[in-house]
Amino acid sequence: MQALANALLSELASRTMSFLVSTYGSTAAARKQEEDLHMLRLLLLRSGTIAEEAEGRRVTNRAMLWQLGALRDEMLRGYYVLDTIR
């Protein structure tokens, strides 16, 4: 009888711990993903503002133009990732 009680308590404790770990783990992961998406949105807004400001100025330096093009390309990739995840 005591062995049965120990087995039941052990199984109950195991299932309780498994439930708590899975519940906490999934909410923490979802919260982290939301924070990452929010940060991506902010970075995309910032990079869009930088690109617009640079386009409004007359930039003639080839290196700066190349960096501006790279910024635009990465900004488009960021929007693609954001749209794909949502």
Number of helices: 2
- Biggest sheet overview: none
What's the total number of strands? 0
Write down the oligomeric state.
single chain
Q: Cα distance, first to last residue?
A: 54 Å
Task: Write the element-wise H/E pattern from the N-terminal end onward.
Answer: HH
Helix content range: over 70%
User: Which range does the strand content fall in?
Assistant: under 5%
Low-confidence stretches: none
- Overall structural class, as computed from helix and strand content, comes to mainly alpha
- The figure for the number of domains is 1
Shape: rod-shaped
Overall pLDDT level: 84
Return Rg in Å: 25 Å
Overview of this structure, please?
- The protein is mainly α and 86 residues long.
- The chain has one domain.
- Helix content is 92%, strand content 0%.
- It has two helices and no strands.
- Helix 1 packs antiparallel against helix 2.
- The termini are far apart.
- The model has no long low-confidence stretch (mean pLDDT 84).
- This is Rx N-terminal domain-containing protein.
Main features:
86 residues, mainly alpha, 2 helices, 92% helix, Rx N-terminal domain-containing protein
In short:
This is Rx N-terminal domain-containing protein. With 86 residues, the protein is an all-alpha fold.
Secondary-structure map with pairings?
Blueprint: H1 2-56, H2 62-85
